[in-house]
């Protein structure tokens, strides 16, 4: 029997990583996810691993890269402005095909953002990939259990495709406590990491060169051909999404992360009143479940995108998926019950919008 | 046959094993010589199979691409952060980062100092040619006062851009630093002295005594706009008065 505990989203990230065999963690403290690093600092030395607090997120990104060169599973966690600082190392990892996991616990707003407020304003930045036009998988869980599952999956996907793998967590999930069943997932076998830098004496005399200078080593068009084959494979096999009462729905709510929990409640409220509403929840934000959303939305004819932000890339992705087969509406941060920091979009507000649309 | 000539042993110099030849350095550049030195030392200390090289971005990385050992490179500046993390995971390997003076003294200065503060058990090899070689010889933290570069067209003025940075001397006083030195390869005698320094630096890492940094002075004929032979004179007359040679810190020596 698996153990069941009460756990916060932040601790679930740390527990999931350790459960997936990640023993090395490099990070710089930033609200609202510093607890992940604190957990790692306490637990990793007990299992012969290493926690190192870096001199900044830029360095943390490069430390993850450096440690991942060994072939070990490595992770960092940060929040929105930290992801911005990590852009260079993230692109380097994608270029040299060094697998690692990054957890972004997004906080509200551009610039420094607001350390103490929930919000969904990282979608565009994360899903459009690194500079140099390479995209990486991004998973958006909506419960503590899912945080635990998708962090483990992120490690598997990273190793399977030799890519960076991202989990988009948020303030609400990070600080929320829920029941969590502690189980280690088996996602199947993985190839040996023959490319790892261990010293040539430890791999039969063969030495390897991992390089991020694409122009010197290989022709860049050829590099992109290889990358395209890889991203096509990811788009073919790693799409994940969830639907709720969409079969007979006349309107589909589209949401991810904590907002999807609110949207789900709105569906229940609407159904009680006999209003046929369903929910579509993308879990992999890249690759985006385009076809599934297209089919679901086309059948219903109407879509309401709910995101606790001003609305950006998420609406774009919905539009690109639906391809004009359904009308697309948006309910964003302006729909919060108050503009004070505790403001949230409540199910009743979503229902009000649904009534106006149907 | 006289007695003197009979004493001379036949020495066969082995060609260094490089993955990629030619190395890609300009004629008269000393970077190739420094990489050859690294290769010799690794071979003599029998460390090749256990060494991992973290290269950077800029001319200095051309050799990192060529060395026939496990290597990573490309990013400009963060080599010390990368090497730090790898050394935490792989405690048995000999891990060294090769950096240009601009990487170490400008864009990567924060990482360099932070790594020294932590006393990471890695070795940093700096190549100081007093300019940014690959991008056309612009001002580097190590550019000499009065030196004309594309971004200091009237010569480096300390009121505008400060005075040359001395990397090894900067970190030498830090508790975590076990070794800090500067060498040069512009003459055979200095080449041999520098080789000894490199051996000391690697030995200190093997003994896990802490952070080590060894800076090499180097010619950049292309950007200095000097003939190779005149570069030697430039190093003698201009570089050496600014950048003293020798070991500034060697905690291994003190114990002896």
Structure write-up:
The complex is a heterodimer of chains A (about 350) and B (about 260). In chain A, about 40% of the residues lie in helices and about 20% in strands. By secondary structure, chain A is an alpha/beta fold. Chain A has 2 domains: about 5-180, Thiamin diphosphate (ThDP)-binding fold, Pyr/PP domains (Rossmann fold, 3-Layer(aba) Sandwich), CATH 3.40.50; about 240-355, 3-Layer(aba) Sandwich (Rossmann fold), CATH 3.40.50.920. In chain A, strand 11, helix 11 (about 260-270) and strand 12 (about 275-280) form a beta-alpha-beta unit. Chain A starts with a strand and ends with a helix. In chain A, about 50% of the residues are buried. Chain B has about 260 residues and is α/β, with parallel strands linked by helices. Chain B has one domain (about 25-255): Thiamin diphosphate (ThDP)-binding fold, Pyr/PP domains (Rossmann fold, 3-Layer(aba) Sandwich). In chain B, about 40% of the residues lie in helices and about 15% in strands. Chain B contains 12 helices and 7 strands. In chain B, strands 2-1-3-4-6-5-7 form a 7-stranded mixed β-sheet, sandwiched between helices. The termini of chain B are far apart. The mean pLDDT of chain B is about 95. The interface between A and B is large, with 40 and 33 residues. Strand 9 (about 210) of chain A pairs parallel with strand 2 (about 70-75) of chain B, so a sheet runs across the interface.
In short:
The complex is a heterodimer of chains A (358) and B (256). With 358 residues, chain A is of the alpha/beta class. In chain A, 41% of the residues lie in helices and 20% in strands.
Number of domains of chain B: 1
The amount of beta strand of chain B, in percent, is: 15-25%
Low-confidence stretches of chain A: none
The whole-number mean of residue pLDDT values of chain A reads 96
What general form of chain B does the structure show?
A: globular
- Quickly name the level 1 CATH class of the largest domain in chain A: Alpha Beta
Per the CATH scheme, the topology name of the largest domain in chain A is: Rossmann fold
Helix content of chain B: 40-55%
Residue share in β-strands of chain A: 15-25%
What is the CATH H-level superfamily of chain B?
A: Thiamin diphosphate (ThDP)-binding fold, Pyr/PP domains
Which stretches of chain B are poorly predicted, pLDDT < 50 over at least 5 residues?
A: none
Q: What structural class results from the helix and strand content of chain A?
A: alpha/beta
Rg of chain A, alpha carbons: 21 Å
Q: How many strands, what sense, and barrel or not for the largest sheet of chain A?
A: 7 strands, mixed
Topology-level CATH name of chain B: Rossmann fold
Which strand order spans the largest sheet of chain A, edge to edge or round the barrel? 3-2-4-5-7-6-13
Order of helices and strands of chain B: HHEHEHEHHEHHEHEHHEH
Order of helices and strands of chain A: EHEHEHEHHEHEHEHEEHHEEHEEHEHEH
SS element count, helices of chain A: 14
| Global structural class of chain B | alpha/beta
The percentage helix of chain A is: 40-55%
